[in-house]
Specification:
By secondary structure, this protein is mostly helical. The protein has a domain of 155 residues. Strands 1-2 form a two-stranded antiparallel sheet. Helix 1 runs antiparallel to helix 5 and helix 2 packs antiparallel against helix 9.
């Protein structure tokens, strides 16, 4: 559980850490849009180079990036197996017992795997270089134009910020419960499938109870401090976009335009 990196802020001094959170959030959205533009592996390679440059500039270690992708390995393997068995397009490559593997299945699986890996790294880069408070302010500012349409910008930003902040906390709580159950003789590693399922169920119940208790404590603390989402609020810290932030958005926009051109041609 300690290897879980998604949602963790890494306090480093880098150019990306000092950027405006609104620019980083918009850049993430533009890159996610670019991932789904059908530009093929050339487009993925271009996005990958840009993301790698961002990781290097942010001074994040490769081990940290790997730990953010590690929890998704099971899903990637599961998607690989399902696609190989279900998709029947392209040329026939092999026959294993009653199952057939086609070239289209392999290509589709590679597309999905690459997309998921890029999305995970982009999200990790954002959460690792942006403080939770800055994330809240950035999301709220980006949603402000929708306030005239009765969209609760501040409430949505607060919920997203709390959700991202509590991911590492819930992971640590899960690890604590696992250690407590293992000290009482519960084996979460060995045994039959039924026994493992029962062990996981015994882990989920106390985890949910702890999560609800933390949520109630947080609500009581916010209420005791006079928090009211409907009141007009002032800020101690004002966000200002600088030339480096606009430059990042310009690069991401040009990237999406280039990917659209590659897809059309």
């Amino acid at each position: 559980m300690k290897s879980f990196a998604l949602g963790r802020y890494v306090p480093l001094d880098s150019l990306i850490h000092r950027m405006d959170p609104r620019a980083k959030i918009m850049a993430m959205i533009l890159l996610l849009i670019g991932i789904f533009i059908p530009a093929g592996f050339i487009g993925y390679a271009v996005i990958g180079v840009l993301i790698c440059a961002g990781v290097i500039i942010a001074k994040l270690s490769l081990d940290f990036i790997w730990r953010s992708m590690k929890p998704m390995l099971f899903m990637l393997v599961f998607l690989l197996i399902i696609n190989l068995l279900v998709i029947k397009t392209g040329t026939l490559l092999a026959t294993i017992w009653v199952f057939t593997i086609y070239s289209g299945a392999i290509m589709q699986t590679l597309y999905i795997v690459v997309r998921l890996m890029l999305m995970i790294v982009i999200t990790t880069l954002l959460t690792a270089t942006t403080k939770p408070l800055e994330m809240t302010l950035g999301i709220e500012d980006l949603l402000k134009p929708f306030v005239r349409f009765k969209v609760p910008a501040h409430e949505i930003a607060m919920m997203i910020s709390i959700a991202l902040r509590f991911i590492p906390t819930l992971i640590e709580e899960t690890e604590r419960i696992m250690r407590a159950q293992q000290s009482r003789g519960v084996d979460l590693q060995e045994g039959k499938i039924k026994e493992k399922i029962m062990a996981v169920l015994s882990l989920i119940v106390p985890l949910f109870i702890s999560a609800f208790q933390r949520a109630e404590d947080l609500a009581n603390a916010m209420e005791a401090r006079g928090y009211n989402p409907g009141w007009k609020r002032t800020r101690y810290k004002k966000l200002t976009m600088q030339s480096r932030d606009w430059g990042l958005l310009m690069v991401c926009c040009l990237l999406d335009v280039a990917l659209i051109g590659i897809a059309v041609l």
